[in-house]
Amino acid sequence: MHQALSIENLIAGYGRRVLLRNLCFTVPEPAFVAVIGHNGCGKTTLLRALTGQLPYEGRVSVNGQDLGAVRRPAAAGLLAHLPQRASVEFSLPVRELVVMGRFRHHRFLGAYSAADYALADAALARVGAAHLAGRDFTLLSGGEQQLVWLAQLSLQDAALCLLDEPTQQLDVYYRRRVFGLLHEWVQQEGKTVLCITHDLDNLLQLPGYLLNLSRPAPQLQVLSPELVATERAYLESEASLGPHPHA
Ligand SMILES: Nc1ncnc2c1ncn2[C@@H]1O[C@H](COP(=O)(O)OP(=O)(O)OP(=O)(O)O)[C@@H](O)[C@H]1O
Fold this sequence. Notes:
Strand content: 15-25%
CATH class of the domain at 1-78 and 161-167 and 192-247: Alpha Beta
Helix content: 25-40%
Order of helices and strands: EEEHEEEHHHEHEEEH
Structural class: alpha/beta
CATH superfamily of the domain at 1-78 and 161-167 and 192-247: P-loop containing nucleotide triphosphate hydrolases
Shape: globular
Keywords: ATP-binding, Nucleotide-binding, Translocase, Transport
Radius of gyration: 18 Å
GO molecular function: ATP binding; ATP hydrolysis activity
Number of strands: 10
Pfam family, one: ABC_tran
Protein name: Iron complex transport system ATP-binding protein
Bound molecules: adenosine-5'-triphosphate
CATH topology of the domain at 1-78 and 161-167 and 192-247: Rossmann fold
Function: Part of the ABC transporter complex HmuTUV involved in hemin import. Responsible for energy coupling to the transport system.
Distance between the termini: 40 Å
């Protein structure tokens, strides 16, 4: 059995500004991993490297497959990515946007089938957004749009889901609901979820791991209420901010 995610000596940054130095961690089995840290510590940079948008040194493998050697990891079902800001330039019914999550199962130029649309509707219902199916996506609120993207991502069937602050614009009810949903993806669908978040309160009751990228040598730790309290205290302390190791 391959490890769900393995990161070996990952180095990435922008020119001489190195943000990730020899990052090493292994997620042995499908799991939820919360990535936390101060603004600007390199959380999004990590996702950019994993999605091939930023060159990196080191080795990343998903279910035993070397990510650097796969030309189109999304098309291969290895990873799916929800960036912090995603936009759609033209009017589009929500259902049409969600069904696009089925792109891997879709024939070139063929229409999506009734079964694809049924899956899209079910995905919308799971995020609590069934009522949005017929609405124009571009006219939704920021939080509503976030729920729709999550529904689309859930249809992508990827081994590794990378999410950049998916609950950022959500109200307290939907925040909790989305963390519950991510946990279900792990438990019921065997996905590994790497989720950047500042929402430490919602991590208290979740099983999984925590990676604090503000630590000088970040390591994967098993999530627990005690760990969240320790890492919160660390992030709140002036000492953790400076002198900034990356400046
Ligand atoms: N293209 C770029 N060129 C140079 N520096 C960049 C570039 N993109 C980002 N940075 C810098 O790299 C640092 C890390 O950015 P990153 O987006 O990874 O932070 P983050 O941890 O995700 O922060 P936040 O919590 O605010 O989203 C920031 O200081 C940012 O200004």
